[in-house]
Structure formats: C-alpha cells, structure tokens
C-alpha cells in the first residue's frame, strides 16, 4: 500500500523499505521531488548501503516494454531497476501490466517530478487511471525535501561549494544556470530560443534525450536560421560561472551524442522554487507535435497534453500514436485505450 513519506532523511526511508521487503513480489519505491532535490544521490546511497552487491539497471520504460525480462533477470540477483524522471506516459504504461511483469524479478526505484505527480493525482479521468494506480497502490512514495539539513550545509561549506536551496542544486549550481538562462533572452537570444524550445518539449512530456537534428528542428520552428544553430547550441551547452553543467548537456554522463535539457530549468518555467511560471502556449504544443512524430513520442505528448487540459492536442497526438504504431505494440494499445477514454468522457 502506498504511503507519502514525511521523514527527514529519504535515504534512511528507502533503506527501511528495501530491507523490510518480503514475499514473492518486490517493492516499488518512488522518490518524489522537484528537479535537483537530490533524488539520484538518495537512490545511489540507499542502494550502496542496502544492496551493495545488487545488479543495478537504468532502463527507460520503453526498454521494459520491449525487453525479454526473463532473460534479463536470469542471472543471480538481487536485481534493482532505476527509472529516473518518469513522465506521465511512463506511469500509465507501468500501470498497464509492466510493473506486474517486473516486480516478481526486481525491485524498482523510480523518480518523478513533484509537478507531474500532482498533475496525475488531480486528474480523475479513466485515461490516467493506470498512472494513479501506480502512485496510490503500487508505489511507496517518499517525498525528497529540497531544504538543506544542517549537516549538509556544513559539508558544502567545508567542500567549498556555494550554499543554496538544496544539496543537489548547490552541487550543480542550478540557480546560476537559471540566471544564465534568463539573461540569455537579452545577451544571446538565439541560444535562449533554443533552450526555451528544448525546455518546452520536456514540459510537453518528452523526457528522453534529444537528437541534435531534433533540437535544430525545434530551433527552426521558432524562427531560428540554420546557419546560426551551431552558435546557439554552443551557448546553450556552455557551463556558466558558478555551475557544473550547461542548460543542455550530453546524455549518459557526456558519452552520448544526444542532448538532455536541465530539468531544473524546466522546473523553474513550471514555477518551482519561487520562479514565475511561464505559460506553455499553443505554439509549443504544435511544434512538439510536428517535430516528435515517433508514435512513442506522440503517445507521451498526448498524455501530457490531457493533463494540461489541451484536449484537442491530446486527441490528435494519441490518434497519431495509434495510427503509426504496430498493432501489437503496447504503446498502441495504451494510446487507443486513452483515446477511447477521453472521447467517452467528452474530454477530447
């Protein structure tokens, strides 16, 4: 049964839940917090403390849908899955049988932004019901506090890091990166436009890394010229003073050719940490629909659009996912059921 964690130390709570797990079905522990609240650190510390010899996997939910799980987990365990930065569409897929297939074999640790968790819990539609089931019935939810504990403040000072709002935010310099982002509107409008487009794509539910040509398509959809794209990307990926990352950075710890957008910047535009929320306008949704034509992306976009009250966009995106997915694809089935639910509810 789900519970909302209210303890001060999320690492201790994760360890407690993992150590108390018993029975044929493994636990799912869901860490909920804003970007850069220290969720990933909490997960690694808990696993190192509780399961130092465990096999840790970091797949996407799309991987789990397609993988042969019996073969994946055939080696000796314990097996631990880390599902980082779940989107609403991921939650729906997990609640449509994916967790039922995984939990007999592996423990699941996952994270989700507070923004999306609250959106899912507020929604009452049948289309999002599998996601609510994950949050309310499958997952032990632990809220990761953003405020620094006294020992964390002391440690940051001793290590020479700036003491800011949260531990991970202090280590990365999230507020410095956001200030760099805001100043870009004046000092480098091309780079600012590119970052804003990538941030909006994430806010529209596309959580995977972006191919460089996708970034360029987003950029050009917002009026950017092809010859200036490289200059914009260079600015967007530059690490500003007082930070350890750029607004855009290479995925997989710099080893990938694909790009991620800093979730903290997306959170700031959603209104996290006292920042003024920036509206997610019609153009952003339309550009995402045009650039991310893959059925999996259209499905993710459709679920997020529904949660934002953009019912026509949701209907169009889900219909595209159904049309261009293979009939046996779980995404096609999920999109078809979500579309049918929205039409039955009169929401699309």
Average pLDDT level: 88
Order of strands in the sheet with the most strands?
Answer: 1-6-2-5-4-3
Shape verdict = globular
Percent strand: 5-15%
Q: Strand-and-helix sequence, N→C?
A: EHEHEHHEHEHHEHHHHHHEEHHHHH
State the total count of DSSP E strands.
Answer: 8
Structural class: alpha/beta
Major beta-sheet overview: 6 strands, parallel
Q: Runs with pLDDT <50, length 5+? A: 1-7
Q: What count of helical segments does DSSP give?
A: 18
For the CA atoms, what is the radius of gyration? 20 Å
**First-last Cα distance:** 32 Å
Describe the 3D structure.
It is a single chain. This protein is α/β, with parallel strands linked by helices and 348 residues long. Helix content is 55%, strand content 10%. It is built from 18 helices and eight strands. The protein has helices at 10-19, 39-50, 61-66, 69-72, 88-102, 114-122, 129-138, 150-159, 167-172, 174-187, 189-203, 212-221, 229-237, 263-270, 282-291, 295-307, 311-324, 330-345, and strands at residues 4-5, 28-33, 55-57, 79-83, 107-113, 139-143, 248-250, 259-261. The strands form two sheets. A six-stranded parallel beta sheet has the order 1-6-2-5-4-3. It has a two-stranded antiparallel ribbon with strand order 7-8. Helix 11 packs across helix 14, helix 16 (295-307) packs antiparallel against helix 17 (311-324) and helix 16 packs parallel to helix 18 (330-345). The radius of gyration is 20 Å and the shape is globular. It starts with a strand and ends with a helix.
């Amino acid at each position: 049964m789900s519970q909302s964690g209210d303890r001060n130390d999320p690492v201790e709570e994760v360890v407690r839940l993992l150590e108390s797990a018993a029975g044929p079905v493994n636990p799912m522990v869901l860490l909920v917090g804003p970007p850069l609240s220290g969720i990933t650190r909490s997960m690694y510390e808990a696993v190192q403390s509780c399961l130092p010899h465990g096999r840790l996997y970091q797949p996407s939910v799309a991987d789990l849908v397609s993988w042969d799980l019996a073969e994946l987990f055939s080696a000796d365990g314990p097996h631990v899955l880390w599902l980082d930065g779940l989107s609403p569409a991921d939650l729906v897929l997990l609640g449509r049988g994916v967790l039922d297939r995984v939990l007999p074999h592996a423990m699941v640790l996952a994270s989700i932004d507070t923004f999306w968790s609250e959106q899912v819990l507020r929604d009452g539609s049948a289309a999002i019901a599998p996601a609510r089931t994950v949050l309310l019935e499958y997952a032990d939810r632990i809220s990761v506090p953003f405020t620094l504990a006294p020992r964390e403040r002391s440690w940051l000072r001793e290590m020479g890091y700036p003491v800011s709002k949260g531990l991970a935010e202090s280590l990365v310099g999230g507020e410095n990166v956001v200030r760099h982002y805001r100043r870009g509107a004046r000092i480098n409008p091309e780079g600012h436009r590119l970052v804003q487009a990538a941030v909006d794509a994430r806010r529209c539910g596309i959580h995977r890394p972006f191919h460089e040509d996708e970034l360029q398509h987003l950029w050009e959809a917002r009026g950017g010229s092809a010859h200036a794209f490289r200059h914009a990307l260079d600015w967007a990926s530059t690490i500003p003073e007082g930070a350890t990352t750029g607004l855009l950075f290479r995925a997989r710890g710099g080893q990938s050719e694909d790009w991620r957008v800093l979730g903290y910047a997306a959170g700031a535009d959603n209104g996290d940490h006292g920042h003024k929320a920036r509206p997610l306008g019609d153009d952003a949704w339309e550009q995402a629909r045009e650039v991310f034509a893959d059925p999996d992306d259209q499905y993710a976009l459709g679920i997020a659009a529904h949660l934002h009250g953009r019912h026509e966009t949701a209907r169009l995106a889900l219909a595209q996912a159904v049309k261009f997915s293979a009939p046996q694809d779980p995404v096609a089935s999920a999109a078809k059921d979500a579309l049918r639910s929205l039409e039955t509810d009169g929401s699309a």
